[in-house]
Specification:
Blueprint (H helix, E strand, L loop, with lengths): L10 E16 L5 E17 L9 H5 L19 E4 L7 E4 L3 H17 L2 H5 L2 E9 L13 E2 L1 H14 E14 L2 E12 L5 E13 L2 E8 L2 H8 L2
Parallel strand pairs: 5-10
Antiparallel strand pairs: 1-2, 3-4, 5-6, 7-8, 8-9, 9-10
């Protein structure tokens, strides 16, 4: 016989958001290669109904507003407050969750510095263990060829980008922040300094923060337009 709690319907709902960015490159008139990046976040769950008989471990966790996790657990409070995380092999540590307004301010000030050609100001928001990648394989530029890890390696890449590409009329098109992840769509006139050619680009950034610093940064745009701009 099924337990009494099993007779009541369990109703679940999830809400979140998704962003998609991509680029396509024609190898021949009949063959092309396309790269697509999809970011999806469904980070909140709500469960209604008497779940004690079916999911006994869920009750104390739902009081926190989060579903249980497998492995080491992290309980996050409201944005901007502090929480305690229990590491698998060590004592609890206190981490600061970057709030959404702080993330927006950090990113905007970073692009203000980037537009000025200020390398130090651009790198100020990056963590020591930051990972960066510009999805620009096939452009012929080493700075867009692969992922860089560590602040020193990323700084070298950013320096090459600042030296080669000058921004003007930078505009924020859309900006979505969810927890410590952010997705930014921006537009700017970009000039290749080696030949003076200028094109308007739409660029999509995907960033992850920790303790007020960027720890993961991915960028994508129209690589065919980049190749065209690089031609003499």
């Amino acid at each position: 016989m099924r337990p009494e709690a099993d007779k009541e319907a369990i109703r679940t709902s999830e809400r979140g958001w998704k962003l998609v960015a991509g680029a396509e490159y024609a190898l021949t008139s009949a063959i092309s290669i396309r790269a697509e990046c999809v970011y999806r976040d469904l980070g909140e769950s709500n469960v209604t109904g008497d779940h004690a008989g079916l999911f006994p471990s869920l009750r104390p966790t739902l009081q926190q507003g989060h579903a249980p996790l497998t492995g080491p657990s992290t309980r996050k409070t409201l944005l901007g407050k502090r929480s305690t995380a229990q590491a698998a092999d060590g004592p609890p540590r206190e981490d600061r969750m970057t709030n959404s307004e702080e993330i927006r301010e950090i990113v905007r000030s970073t692009y203000e510095a980037r537009s000025r050609g200020d390398l130090i100001g651009t790198m100020a928001s990056f963590a020591d263990d930051v990972a960066y990648e510009f999805y620009g394989q096939g452009t012929g530029l080493p700075s867009m060829a692969s992922e860089a890890r560590g602040k020193a390696a990323v700084e070298q890449i950013i320096k090459e980008l600042i030296d080669n590409f000058r921004f003007s009329d930078w505009q924020e098109v859309s900006f979505v922040v969810e927890g410590e992840k952010a997705a930014l769509h921006w537009r700017a006139n970009v000039t290749f300094t080696q030949n003076g050619r200028t094109e308007k680009f739409d660029v999509f950034d995907f960033l992850t923060f920790r303790d007020g610093k960027v720890v993961d940064f991915r960028q994508g745009t129209d690589t065919a337009k980049i190749r065209s701009m690089l031609e003499n």
